[in-house]
UniProtKB/TrEMBL annotation:
Domain of life the protein comes from: Bacteria
Coiled coil stretches, renumbered: none
Matches recorded under InterPro entries: ADC_synthase (IPR005801), Chorismate_C (IPR015890), IsoChor_synthase (IPR004561)
Record SUPFAM superfamilies: ADC synthase
Lineage, highest ranks first: Bacteria, Bacillati, Actinomycetota, Actinomycetes, Streptosporangiales
Native organism: Streptosporangium becharense
GO terms under biological process: salicylic acid biosynthetic process
Domain Chorismate-utilising enzyme C-terminal: 126-378
Protein name as it appears in the record: isochorismate synthase
Length: 391
C-alpha cells in the first residue's frame, strides 16, 4: 500500500508516541488534537532572505495546491519557522499523517532525577543581568517601549527524545507540545503555552501572553503570586503592548475583531501568565493561517516595540543565535486552516548536547534580577521534562 497521502484515522494518543521516531517525525499536540507526520513528500523551500514570511506563506499555499493536484489525498504542511529570515524555515508536506486526541501520556509528574551542574549558561547570568540593565537604559531613553531578551543553557544530554517529548506533553497537556526534525539532524522540542494564531474556516484566534510570574509549590504563595501578577502595573503594560500589536496586525484582515479589555490569568506547570484571547472573523476567507502568522510575527511577546529597533537591540545584546527559538511551529491544511504556536519553552537537541532557551519581556520599569529569575523559571518547562532541576 502506498503511504503517500495516507490519513490514518484517529489513533489512541499512546500509539502516536509509540510511532515517534525523532529523526523523521513531526509531532504537534494541542487542545484541538495531536498529529504525527512522517516522511517528506515535498519540502517547501525558503524564499530569498528579503522575501519574508508572507512570501513563505504564499509558497506553502502553492505547494499544498500542487500536492492536491498531483493526487496527494490529504496534503498538509507541518514544521517550524525561525525567528529571523536569515535562517531557512523547515516546512514539509509529509507522506503520511496520523491523528490522535491531545497527548496526555501517563506517568509521574515531578521526577527530578538530577541536579544541574554541568550546564553552560550563554550568557552567564551576571552578563544577562547586565544586558537587561543596558536594555533598560535604552527603554528609559524612549527609543523603545519593550524588548525581549533571552538566554540559553547548554546541557550534556543522553539523546533519548521520546521520553522527553512524553514528559513535555504530560506536564503541560493544555499547551502546544511539539517535536520537529530539523534538516541538519537536530531536533526542536518544546511545550509552548502561546498560540500565535489559528484559523478554522473564517474564525481566527490569537492568544498573546506577556507578563509572567514563577509558580510556587506552596498553594497560598502560588495564589498570591498570581494575584500580584494580575495587579502589577508593569506586567499589564508589558501585556498591553503585545495585545495592541496583535490587534493592529489582525484588524486589516478581519471583518470583525474582539479584543477583551482586561487580561486573565493562565498557568503552565511552571509559570503564571497574563493572557488575552483575541478572536475575529476573516474578511477574505482566502487568507491562510500562515499568512495570518506572517502578519503577526514577530509579536512583542518575543521581539519588542517598535519591532525593528527591538530586533537590532536583540542582535546587539544577545550573544547567541536564536535560530528556531521564538519562531513559530504548527501546521496548515489545503483549505488554509491551521494552528501556529510560538516556539518558546523549547530546546534544540544536537547529539549529546541539548540547548534550552528562555526570554523575558523588558520594559522601562523592569527589575534586572527579577527578569533573570523569570528566565530561570521558564527553563523549568524543559528542565523538569529532562528530570533536571536547579540546585
Ligand atoms: C519569550 C518567552 O516568553 C514570552 C511569552 C510569554 C511571556 C513572556 C514574558 O512575560 O516575558 C514572554 O514575552 C519565553 O518563554 O522564552
Amino acid at each position: 500500500m502506498s503511504l503517500i497521502g495516507a490519513h490514518v484515522g484517529l489513533a489512541p494518543a499512546g500509539s502516536l508516541l509509540a510511532a515517534y521516531r525523532a529523526d523523521s517525525c513531526f509531532v504537534f499536540s494541542s487542545a484541538r488534537g495531536a498529529l504525527l507526520a512522517e516522511g517528506a513528500y515535498f519540502t517547501v523551500s525558503s524564499p530569498p532572505r528579503d522575501g519574508g514570511l508572507a512570501d513563505l506563506a504564499a509558497r506553502v499555499g502553492g505547494s499544498l495546491r500542487g500536492a492536491a493536484a498531483a493526487g496527494h489525498e490529504h496534503p498538509i504542511v507541518v514544521g517550524a519557522v525561525p525567528f529571523s529570515s536569515a535562517t531557512d524555515a523547515c516546512l514539509v508536506i509529509p507522506r503520511s499523517v496520523r491523528h490522535a486526541p491531545t497527548l496526555v501520556p501517563p506517568g509521574h509528574h515531578l521526577r527530578y532525577k538530577y541536579l544541574l551542574g554541568r550546564e553552560e549558561a550563554v550568557p552567564h547570568p551576571e552578563s544577562y543581568v547586565e544586558a537587561v540593565r543596558e536594555a533598560i537604559t535604552h527603554l528609559r531613553s524612549g527609543r523603545l517601549a519593550k524588548v525581549v531578551l533571552a538566554r540559553s543553557l547548554r546541557i550534556p544530554f543522553d539523546g533519548r527524545l521520546t521520553p522527553l517529548l512524553a514528559a513535555l506533553a504530560r506536564h503541560d497537556p493544555a499547551g502546544y507540545t511539539f517535536a520537529v526534525p530539523l534538516r541538519d539532524g537536530r531536533v526542536l522540542l518544546g511545550a509552548s503555552p502561546e498560540l500565535l494564531v489559528s484559523r478554522r474556516g473564517r474564525n481566527v484566534a490569537a492568544n498573546p501572553l506577556a507578563g509572567s510570574a514563577p509558580r510556587s509549590a506552596d498553594p497560598a504563595e502560588d495564589r498570591s503570586r498570581a494575584r500580584g501578577l494580575l495587579e502589577s502595573a508593569k506586567d499589564r503594560h508589558e501585556h498591553a503592548l503585545v495585545v495592541d500589536a496583535v490587534a493592529e496586525s489582525l484588524r486589516p484582515l478581519c471583518g470583525t475583531l474582539t479584543v477583551p479589555a482586561e487580561p486573565v490569568l493562565t498557568r503552565t506547570a511552571t509559570m503564571w501568565h497574563l493572557s488575552t484571547t483575541v478572536t475575529g472573523e476573516l474578511a477574505d476567507p482566502g487568507v491562510s493561517s500562515l499568512t495570518l502568522a506572517a502578519a503577526l510575527h514577530p509579536t512583542p511577546a518575543v521581539c519588542g516595540v517598535p519591532t525593528e529597533a527591538a530586533r537590532r537591540l536583540i542582535a546587539e545584546l544577545e550573544p547567541f543565535d536564536r535560530d528556531f527559538y521564538t519562531g513559530v511551529v504548527g501546521w496548515e491544511n489545503a483549505s488554509g486552516d491551521g494552528e501556529w504556536a510560538l516556539t518558546i519553552r523549547c530546546a534544540i537537541a544536537d547529539g549529546s548536547v541539548i540547548s534550552l532557551f528562555a526570554g523575558a519581556g523588558i520594559v522601562a520599569d523592569s527589575d534586572p534580577e527579577a527578569e533573570l529569575a523569570e528566565t530561570t523559571a521558564k527553563f523549568g518547562t524543559a528542565l523538569r521534562a529532562l528530570g533536571l532541576t536547579h540546585a
